[in-house]
Amino acid sequence: MGIGRSYVKSEDLAQEITQDTFLKFFDSVEKLEQNPVITPWLRRIAVNTAIDYYRKNQKFRFHEEADGNRLLVEQENAIEQLGYQEIIALLQQLPDDQQLIFNLYEVEGYSHKEIAEKLSISESSSRVYLTRAKHKLRQLIHLHYSVYAGR
């Protein structure tokens, strides 16, 4: 369910993606070779299921951010000080399109070309969304530290 959680903000939707993943897995299990390596194969099914979900439920093809805020100060090693749950919470604050492309590129290791093919967008759009996601994450990390600095 971890893969589903990294692609959607709702716990219910993550469970739906996980259930669909296992349904696809069991539907295609007879196609497996004699000694399959199941974990990477199941992971690929989960990622593709999350992408399919995104495409089916996408309301706005291109998300434009109207946020013109700029960070004046950035902590270079801020990410090292964050815990796993804090990182996931910050990622889930990204717009859906940015979160999806960030996960595909940075977490799953897809190239911009592969992302563009899977999502039917241009490679340059994939790069733009990734850049926006990273910029937004920097803002969120800065905000996180300014809010929780007094703890």
Count of alpha and pi helical runs: 8
Which structural class should the secondary elements be placed in? mainly alpha
Instruction: Tell me the name of the CATH homologous superfamily of the largest domain.
Output: Winged helix-like DNA-binding domain superfamily/Winged helix DNA-binding domain
Helix content: 55-70%
Structure description:
This protein has 151 residues and is mostly helical. It has two domains: 1-57, no CATH class; 71-151, Arc Repressor Mutant, subunit A. It has eight helices and no strands. The protein has helices at 2-7, 11-28, 38-57, 78-81, 84-91, 96-107, 112-119, 123-148. α2 crosses α3 (38-57) and α7 packs across α8 (123-148). The longest helix has 26 residues, at 123-148. The two termini are 31 Å apart.
